[in-house]
Amino acid sequence: MTDWVPKTRLGQMVLNGEITTMSDALATKLPLREPEIVDILLPDLQDEVIDLNMVQRMTDSGRRVRFAVTCIVGNGDGFIGYGRAKGKEVGPSIKKAIDNAKLNIIEIKRGCGSWQCGCGNPHSLPFEVKGSTGSVTVTLKPAPRGVSLAVGDVAKSLLTLAGVHDAWGFARGNTKTKVNYAMATFEALKMTSRMRVTDEQVKNLNIVTGPTGIKFAETDVETEEE
Q: Could you tell me if 80 and 100 lie in one domain?
């Protein structure tokens, strides 16, 4: 990013080395308006296209075609972002959606919130959370080690990129609408950072915010999708 010239205060602080982690950048409460900031602070960021739709519209000059893209980004260790974009071409639309997801990135809480587990590692969610978008309501619950992600495919993609390894998931509404399903899951994950926790809860549920650096071994336990 040697040729990047920041246009915001947060970007200047990152370029000068005053901020070296994404957690510190979000803690400043300064608006995140440059995707290059995320590229520098999270170099191992992954992205995935959740939905790609072609929208046609008839006008006086003929038929116009546009593409609507929904993308998610995450580092698999506490950070997840969601973004949408529209455009006349697929490639630029995907890039724009990924950039929008980077600008919408959040830091989530993880823990060992299942009463059936108690392993002490932040492999799951610390508590039950809900998120709603349109007709879709998603409920995510902590699960013990080995359960893996017992959720739908769209929610599984978000939880994987967010760094959640075990969780129960329940969804109501028209989940075939991938955009609403993904957004509702993202809102549920956002609730983990919004909910206040006490020092006692942090200790008992092993709650951590953001990256942990812990690599969990893959399990061979298969679960049914809820």
A: yes
